[in-house]
Amino acid sequence: MASMLLTSLRSSPLTSVQAFTQKLKYSENLLSGHQRCRRVCFFIRFTVEIILCVFILSVFVIRYADLMPHDLARAALQGLLNRTGLPKDAVDYIVYGTVIQEVKTSNVAREAALGAGFSDKTPAHTVTMACISSNQAMTTAVGLIAAGQCDAVVAGGVEFMSDVPIRHSRRMRKTMLSLNKAKTLGARLSLLGSIRLAHLAPELPAVAEFSTAETMGHSADRLAAAFGVSRLEQDEFALRSHTLAKKAQDSGLLSDVISFKVPGKDIVSKDNGIRPSTMEQMAKLKPAFIKPHGTVTAANSSFLTDGASAVLIMSEEKALAMGYKPKAYLRDFVYVSQDPKDQLLLGPTYATPKVLEKSGLTLNDIDVFEFHEAFAGQIMANLKAMESDWFAQTYMGRKTKVGAPPMEKFNSWGGSLSLGHPFAATGCRLVTTVAHRLQKEGGQYGLVAACAAGGQGHAMVIEAYPQ
User: Is 58 helix (H, G, I), strand (E, B) or coil?
Assistant: First the structure.
């Protein structure tokens, strides 16, 4: 058993053998007999190499209004199967993320899996964690594999902004439910007579925090002001995102996008939100949230799109046995949370140092950075927070600043500002880009980071698979 354990540990450059054996020795002093065996077996399972094999994205675009979310997720799953030749029965589990849930397909993972032709014996469940929902789906897959429950899991995310659920007002809903239960004509007529014109006003969905009743755009505007991020800086960053995305698209680097046939319409084969403009044109736009003096506009904010993503995650042993060439190792990850009002969008600042310390790396070890671009002001505020000793000491309990990623390594194929942001699908897109950039640029380590509603955040370390 000891030789097996050490062999497994040596295969991972991010695991300290000395630290691990100390933990194991300590555990053995506390446990005995059957308990000790169970503890050791758990550690052995957790050292399983987790591999990202294949990534598929259905195009991020608003034009699917006549469809449903599971249609896009199904297309992503079918695209994954078509590109890999993966036997459907080789997938042990399917996990999908979604944010704005369609009530008819509350477990969209299951409905998409059945629609894609997976066996009805393959379990599937849906997770939600705002903008990091597909990150949660991927790390849930990692947990299933590390625990020895599965060898191959498909994780992904889907968002459908073209047809979001719109509810009746609460008063109207209560009346309708009571009407359904009424047993006499008189009771029904009485309830119908109580309906007023105001009751018919619908409740429209809003990208707002329940705890603060503040939209994310307002938070971005205040965050930009707090860190002194100017309108000019935000517009320049947004233009950078669109310009780099256009270059990557024209160069064929966004190769995991699959074409999608819209029923009764044409085939959509590429993201249509990439639109490089000019600083002069962007300067003409009025503030979108805090008027008239805000700095966040439609041009320097990520736009909401439809989209779906899928990632095949396997143990390395399983992938190689099936003849697949893995793309990357998923080495480590963390989730963080902080004040949902004043620090709503600072997840990357808090998560980055934690995941680096957890994995035994430094900022200088990272070759590729992919941060979610919710707003240009949010990105710039995070970069300034990461460069601030005062912020690190005052809010993070750190002696020195985190340090900001060098821009030449940062989001160099564009980001959410230009590619769009279908909430739950974005996390897989970030990981996809990291893996491909590492292969293209010859780097070893990549770092994904993102903020999310509720003041939450996520970071993940990806390592390139040896070519």
Answer: strand
Residue 435 covered by a domain:
no
| pLDDT of res. 32 | 41
Structure tokens at 285: 């736009």
By CB atoms closer than 10 A (0-12, 13-18, 19+), residue 70 is: buried
Whether this model's pTM surpasses 0.70? yes
For CA atoms 322, 440, 463, 91, the dihedral sign is: negative
The total of structural domains in the chain comes to 1
- Closest to 62 measured CA to CA, from 273, 259, 221, 331: 273
Per-residue buried b or exposed e for 192-226, using 16+ beta carbons within 10 Å of the residue's own CB: eeeeeeebeeeeeeeeebeebebebbbbbbbbbbe
* The pLDDT of residue 99: 95
- The pLDDT of residue 256: 85
Residue 446 lies in a domain: no
Please determine, for residue 366, whether its predicted confidence score (pLDDT) is greater than 90. Answer: yes
Q: Hey, which bits of 259-384 come out as E strands?
A: 260-261, 267-268, 306-315, 328-337, 368-371
- Asked if the bond preceding 292 is cis, omega within 30° of 0, the reply is yes
Residue 426 lies in a domain: no
Domain membership flag for residue 130: no
Q: Which domain holds residue 182?
A: 170-200
Is the torsion defined by CA of 268, 269, 273, 277 positive or negative?
negative
Which among 53, 131, 150, 428 is annotated as catalytic? Answer: 131
Residues in CB range of 216: below 8 A, 6 or more apart: 207, 208, 209, 344, 345, 374, 375, 453
- How far is residue 152 from each of residues 86, 100, 122, 317, measured CA to CA in Å? 11, 27, 11, 10
Q: How many whole angstroms separate alpha carbon 222 and alpha carbon 377?
A: 9
For 38-82, write each residue's pLDDT tens digit: 333 333 323 457 777 766 677 676 667 778 999 999 999 999 998
Is 37 among the catalytic positions?
A: no
Structure tokens at 171: 């008063």
* Distance spanning both ends of the chain, measured CA to CA: 31
Q: What is the pLDDT of residues 400-444, one digit of tens each?
A: 999 999 999 999 999 999 999 999 999 999 999 999 999 999 999
Average of per-residue pLDDT values in the chain: 87
Q: Is 41 a catalytic residue?
A: no
Q: Is the model's pLDDT at 196 over the cut of 50?
A: yes
Task: Please give the share of the chain, as a percent, with pLDDT higher than 90.
Answer: 70
Write down the catalytic residue from 53, 150, 428, 451: 451
